Amino acid sequence: MRQRVKRGAIGTAAALVLLPLLYFLAVLAGSVIPANAGWTPPAAGIPVFIRTNGVHTWILVPTVNAEMDWRPYAPMHDVRDPGGADDYVAMGFGNREFYLETPTWADLRLSTALKAGIGLGTGLVHVEHEPPPRVDRDHRRILVRPEEYRRLAAFLRASFVVRKGRTVPLTGRGYGANDVFYEGQGRYDVFRTCNEWTGAALRHAGIKTGIWTPLEWSVMRWLTPS
Fold this sequence. Notes:
The chain is of the alpha+beta class. The protein is 33% helix and 21% strand. The radius of gyration is 19 Å and the shape is globular. It comes from Allosphingosinicella indica.
């Protein structure tokens, strides 16, 4: 009996060491092996931005252009200040409880992070209405072709829950005056993170990025600040 308990404890300890190591190795491989390896940006195209805060990434797209009008999906009347700038729409994906209960990193609880990591709770799309972004360390611009933008837009649209012909806002739930959350499709977990959602969107559009991008640097390493 003691031997079985001992072997079980050793096995558990080994798993606690090996699983994070295997995850890290998978992250490293997925982040450095390119998808759409032959892609090159066009000389002229539609400007799309990827934003980072060092942990989380967003995709910023023009609110209206010839390929897509985001106003029916994310109308300004859903936010607290509908008179603000609306040149670009920033979108990010995340866990419902994490988004709503962690407005700042100081509010983060271990239980919230663990629940999100194992996929408990539904997903939300976070939308912000903004002026045109400036290229800097935290905002990387990608020029994309119209057909690439249409594929990107299709991926982003599919991230929203649509009921009775429109998206479902969590009215009054946002971090400020120009943002709001929407019911999202799918769940967040350690395999489908906010950053993997960004990477999946880029892959779907045909843009060069890693084959799996669960961490912030997994996405941003492919983008130059220009």
